[in-house]
Design goal:
By secondary structure, the protein is of the alpha/beta class. About 35% of the residues lie in helices and about 20% in strands. Helix 4 (about 55-60) crosses helix 5.
Length: about 280
């Protein structure tokens, strides 16, 4: 209990360093400097008027979602739009993609990405909306064959590189985000059709926003199957970057910049909704 209370009192740059040193041990001395470097950006040219540049780990997470035979696809927290571009480029010609973003300001950037980075024959099958993902499940019509949930997260790489964010950091932020992530994930799971697939991803370092969220899903629902996060779509015609595999975790894979040439951090887990025979 004393250790837990000590952890909760951590704050600011010193607290941040102590918190992640506890998670990663001696590796933190190598991982932390790698977070200051530039992301390994990949150019994704989907045939629109502009290319989209995103972390190669983000491409890797998006192509984990199997799109074969999927007719309805949801990108649940889609802004700024990189993963939306990847999914739209890979989905089958009779599939439709719903790209949702809760923030009206970020939705504008998402809409710009769709309009400028996708060809006409693809973007006409992409619908951009502005809703709270945690309540999308309340509408019976919101049911999907595939879902990508790239959840809002601690984004420690950005925190570490911004002194204003770093001085205000505390573990309570992780707890607050984990609650929001669970609301989104449980909503997404209710919207996923039987035999559907979902990718849950974050750019967080800490397990409370990654594997531990998936562990909670497994405890709550009996129809969750964890799958090997293999590459399901060939994007070599759109992007020539090497896509990182990351390190295996209990329920997924974690791309970390100290071992993946600057890519990440990016956690992703592939989930399958199985039918339950009663």
């Amino acid at each position: 209990m004393k250790q837990k209370n000590k952890k909760n009192k951590l704050s600011g740059a010193e607290g941040f360093d102590s918190y992640y040193s506890e998670i990663f041990g001696s590796r933190w001395n190598l991982l932390k400097p790698s977070l200051y470097g530039k992301n390994q950006l990949a150019e994704f040219n989907a045939g629109g008027s502009e290319s989209y540049f995103l972390d190669s780990a983000s491409v890797r997470a998006a192509v984990t979602l199997p799109l074969k035979n999927a007719r309805t696809v949801l990108d649940m927290c889609a802004a700024p739009g990189g993963k939306t571009i990847v999914l739209a480029s890979c989905m089958e010609k009779n599939a439709e993609l719903l790209a949702n973003e809760r923030s009206s300001e970020r939705k504008i950037r998402l809409f710009h990405s769709v309009e400028n980075c996708l060809p006409e024959n693809v973007k006409k099958r992409v619908n951009v909306i502005c809703k709270d993902g945690a309540t999308l499940c309340l509408a019976e019509s919101n049911r999907f064959d595939r879902i990508l949930l790239d959840a809002p997260c601690s984004s420690e790489r950005h925190v570490l590189c911004d002194l204003n964010y770093l001085k205000d950091w505390s573990p309570s932020r992780i707890k607050t985000l984990a609650i929001a992530q669970w609301s989104l994930l449980s909503s997404a799971w209710r919207m996923l059709n039987v035999d559907g697939y979902m990718v849950y991803s974050t750019c967080a370092l800490n397990p409370d926003e990654n594997d531990n969220i998936i562990k909670k899903l497994l405890k709550k629902f009996d129809d969750v199957e964890i799958c090997e996060p293999k590459i399901s779509s060939d994007v070599s015609s759109f992007c020539n970057a090497t896509l990182p595999e990351g390190e295996k975790t209990e329920f997924g894979s974690h791309v970390l910049p100290d071992t993946c040439n600057g890519a990440g951090p990016l956690y992703f887990s592939l989930l399958h909704k199985i039918g339950i025979i009663e």
